[in-house]
Each structure stands twice: as C-alpha cells, then as structure tokens.
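Appendix C reproduces, verbatim, an entry submitted by the partner laboratory led by Prof. M.T., so that reviewers can inspect both the input and the predicted structure.
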Amino acid sequence: MKSVFSLLAIAAVLLFSSSIQKKNTASGCEMTVTYAELAHAAFKKAYKASSIEDATPLLKDGVAKASEASAYAISPKCNCDIAKNYALNAVTFGNKALKTSDLAELKKLTKKAMDMSLDVLTATPNCGAEKSK
C-alpha cells in the first residue's frame, strides 16, 4: 500500500513538472517579446527627448533592439513572420527618425516605431513552433 502511494506521488510530481515546463516554453517567442519590450522602452525615451541630440542614441538603441526582436521572431522556436514584419517596421521608422533634422518629425516617426514594437507583443501569442504544426 505504501509503495502504491509512493508511485502515485512520483507520477503526480512528474506530470506537474512537465506541465509547468510546457507553460514556460509554450510560444517559444520569449526573446522576441523581451527585445520588443526593450525597443519600445528605448523608443519611448527617444520620443520624450527634448532635442535631436538627446534622442539619437536612444533611437539607435531602439533600432538595435527591434532588429534583435526581428531575428528572434524568425527563429525555429518562435516562427512568427508577422512579429518579424512588425519589428522590421519599427526598425524602418527608427532609421527614418534618425535621418530627420526636424524634432517634430522625429517624434512622429518615433511614435510609429513605438507602436510597431507594441504590435510585436500582440502578434507573438499566436505564434510559436507548436502552433505552426
């Protein structure tokens, strides 16, 4: 009787731990989300900057982070073309903002880059290697 309870306890622990592991890696897009969040934060700081000189390093950081998000979005674990496209759009708007000499235009383009970074976050829950099978 004691060994039956021991076997049941071991089986319950194994089932519980495997279900937790599946939840943690359900989408495979964790790094995509992380870099999209970092890009959004950098673009937001750039948007709030009071000068082009202050915004430039923040925009460069946001573009780099959005580029990383794009790379992780097409990894086999994530496999999310729509998130990749949103991240590349954020890169495009960020690069356009870097090239402008007008603060108002910079803010407008930076806002678009912020929005695209957020769109990456909304796209990733519908992606992942398991959902593409």
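Helices lie at 2-24, 30-48, 52-73, 81-99, 103-123. Additional entries are available on request from the coordinating office.
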